[in-house]
Amino acid sequence: GPSGVNQLGGLFLNGRPLPTCKRQRIIALAASGARSSDISRSLKVSNGCVSKILGRYYRTGAVGPKAVGGSKPLMATPAVVARIARLKLEQPGLFAWQIRRQLHAEGICAGSGIPSVSSINRVLRTLPSDLRLAAEPRDPRPPVSPLAAPPGPQPPPVPGSPQGCAPGPRPRSGGRSRNRNRTVFSRQQAEALEEEFQRGQYPDTATRESLAAATQLPDTTIRVWFSNRRAKWRRENKQQLEAGGAGDSPG
Question: Which sections of the sequence are annotated for DNA binding (predicted)?
Answer without folding.
Answer: 178-237
